[in-house]
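Pipeline run #58 for the internal structure catalog. This entry was flagged by the ingest filter as a single-chain record with no existing model, so it goes straight to prediction. Upstream metadata was stripped on purpose; only the residue string is passed forward. Reviewer on rotation: M.T. Logging verbosity set to normal.
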Amino acid sequence: MNFMHRDEEVDYYPSRHSPPTPVPPRPVVGRRQKVTIHKQDDFKQPGERYGSWAPDRQERFVRRFADALAHPKVSPELRAIWIDLISKCDESCGMKVANSLNVKPSM
């Protein structure tokens, strides 16, 4: 028996061999509160990580990222989105990637 041979897609849940089980309704318990949810900064940690690298490692990262974005199947819109995301992490990194791709960053 070859376990790697598959005739159909793998679907682990719900199993077609076990009977369907209904989800029991649970009452919601607790107090309802109106609270301001503070927006988190999703770009601070990657920016700090990039800044902690040695300059040669930063250049390798920029070169590899630019090479990946230079692939012919990557659309200009997708390049702009990624450059914008990189720039939010670290502005200099975004500028370096944009310059190596000859793209003007939209900041």
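catalog note: The two ends are 57 Å apart (CA to CA).
catalog note: Helices lie at 44-52, 55-69, 76-89, 91-100.
status: ready for reviewer M.T.
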